[in-house]
Write a structure and sequence with these properties.
Elements (H helix, E strand, L loop, with lengths): L5 E6 L6 H12 L4 E6 L9 H9 L25 E4 L2 H4 L11 E4 L12 H23 L8 H11 L5
Parallel strand pairs: 1-2, 1-3, 3-4
Length: about 170
């Protein structure tokens, strides 16, 4: 009996930092149990260099990461998502496409490090804080006994995880 691979889509508005970091973290740290993707409602078209630098400092592969529109994941030929997680408050309030297969959705709001004003040290800390929060939440999701949880229990767990901080 093979263990299923769960597809998860991380969404934020620009798809340049938080959702990109979440995609990289999930793909590297889920031991193949999850396949992560990321997208934005209004993609920036480029990645935040600070996010890329942070991921590379932590030995994450960034070669395949790119900013993309969430419409890529709403079509009939898109991978079927098991989970759709918004990581920014703005995207959570937008009208999302209808995702094929009725995935479980939750909001995991994380402060936008790109929007932080101040000196370089302050900005680096904002990116690090966002990274650590996402890493913690992803670790909690990866360690859930998904196969033993009904859909409502899994929804409740995802909502609870969204309140966890690093």
């Amino acid at each position: 009996m093979t263990t299923p691979i769960f597809n998860v889509l991380f969404i934020c508005t620009a798809n340049s930092a938080r959702s990109i970091m979440a995609e990289a973290i999930m793909n590297q740290q889920s031991d193949g149990l999850f396949r992560a993707f990321s997208a934005g409602s209004h993609p920036a078209g480029q990645l935040s260099q600070e996010a890329v630098d942070l991921l590379q400092r932590h030995q994450f592969d960034t070669a395949t990461l790119h900013s993309k529109n969430w419409r890529e994941f709403a079509g009939a030929d898109a991978p079927k998502m098991d989970f759709v997680l918004t990581v920014c408050d703005k995207a959570a309030g937008e009208v999302c496409p209808v995702w094929p297969g009725q995935p479980i959705s939750a909001h995991w709001g994380v402060e936008d490090p790109v929007a932080v004003q101040g000196d370089e040290a302050h900005k680096r800390k904002a990116f690090s804080d966002a990274f650590l929060t996402l890493q913690r939440r992803i670790a909690l999701l990866v360690n859930l006994p998904i196969e033993k949880l009904d859909k409502l229990s899994l929804q409740n767990e995802l909502n609870r995880i969204g309140t966890e901080h690093s």
